[in-house]
Amino acid sequence: MKLFMLWDMEGVSGLFRREQTWHWEERSTDEDYKEGRELLVADINAASITALENGVDDLIICDTHGGGGNIIMDQMLKDDRITYVNPRGEYNGKFQWMPGLDEKVDGFLTMGHHSMYGTPNSFLPHSNFLTWRHVKFNGVEVGEMAIESTFAAYWGVPYVMAQGDNVAMAEAKRLFPWIVTAEVKQSVDYDRCKGPSPEEGRAITKDKLIETIAKIEKNEFKPYEPGLPLTITMDIEDQAMLKKLTADPRSSVNSEGLVEATVNSYADVLAWTGSNVGINIDPPN
Ligand SMILES: [Zn+2]
What we know:
five-stranded antiparallel β-sheet; globular; seven-stranded mixed β-sheet; 25% strand; alpha/beta; Rossmann fold
């Protein structure tokens, strides 16, 4: 069995403070970020061991928070069955999103994830970039988990599991009712979460991952397919980003003055949304 685990950081077990993950902010010290990275590494290693002990023989770990670079390579579990990648990289001679994600993957997992922009009483809610507000797919507001999992849908890969705080997992259950969710902590407010402890969070993740693997074997999952053609609408605060996105030939401005694009392939969701930060990556085919 081959799995692709996309690891963000805000939703990992035991990470209870904003400063441990938003390390680019002045309020975050080196010590804060070090704590956050260690929690991320511990969660990834624990999940990898569970996967490998339960029938996974090919595991891709993608470190996606802030574009990658958060995992500490010499602390990661070394095993020939694991490949560590960044969210953008070369694959089969082409630069693309989530290298290694293709039709051979049996399940797509969003681990360490958070809720969408604007979610009340929620820990660090946002949708990809902090300046993107109200991202909608055919009129339905979505967050990062939806945006990312459409790329798995392009490859026909089922979306099987998410891990994060209780509010993020409520979002996952609402948008993707078939997936397994590991609720590893409780949101308190924008800046804070609280327990279970990191060890308890990892134990919850272990149980849920074993459940997920058993359900993949029984073919109980499906890709997240919000429907094609898909109209993506965004309200972007950042004027420089907005300018880049409106310059994309696929873009138009709707009656509410919001930028949007209608795409005919799930591969184009990331290709178009990425173009506002100057990341122009052609769809795989
Ligand atoms: Zn993140």
